[in-house]
Amino acid sequence: MNGHTLLNYARFRMDEEGDFGRVRRQQQVMQTVFGQLKNPLVLLRGPYAAGKIWGYLSTDMPNTFLVGNLFNFAKAIGGIERLTLPVDGSWTYIDTANAGSALAVDTNQNAQAAQEFLGE
Fold first, then answer.
1. Angstrom distances, CA of residue 74 to CA of 20, 43, 46, 49
2. If 0-12 CB within 10 Å is exposed, 13-18 middle and 19+ buried, where does residue 89 land?
3. 8 Å CB contact between 94 and 103
4. Which pTM was predicted?
5. Cα dihedral: 68, 69, 70, 74 (round 10)
6. pLDDT: is 27 or 55 the higher one?
7. Is there a contact between 16 and 10 (Cβ–Cβ < 8 Å)?
8. Mean pLDDT of all residues in 68-89
9. Spatial distance between the Cα atoms of 82 and 100, rounded to a whole number of angstroms
10. Is residue 12 scored above 70 in pLDDT?
11. Angle formed by the axes of helices 3-11 and 18-36, nearest 10°
């Protein structure tokens, strides 16, 4: 996929999975991108790619912050730990009078899952 097609794939939500499918596809894309960064040949193209990305980057973060966090980015190449909330089995679909279809979420179960994920 080229970048535009990949972005459309990751953002698509008009299927039976809705937002849950969109989140799953975004995680799949990130996992694949980081997986490809493990290839040493990709590192040779790194400076070229970084220059291209920098041209499209718009942020108010100082350059010192970005450069200082390159190590954290490099660590992520080994794999991304992730948690999707609400966790499976902690929610059900409900119909509401004022908002239509919604999710009823067990906030305690999700708070516990988040605390376990963060190691707290």
1. 28, 11, 12, 15
2. exposed
3. yes
4. 0.58
5. 140
6. 27
7. no
8. 78
9. 30
10. yes
11. 140
User: Domain map of the chain by residue range?
Assistant: 1-69, 83-120
Is residue 62 a contact partner of residue 7, using CB atoms and an 8 Å limit?
no
Q: Which residues contact 22 (CB under 8 A, 6 or more apart)?
A: 10, 11, 12, 13
Structure tokens at 100: 């239509």
Contact 11, 19 (CB under 8 A): no
Q: Which amino acid is at 20?
A: F
* Distance, CA of 106 to chain centre: 23
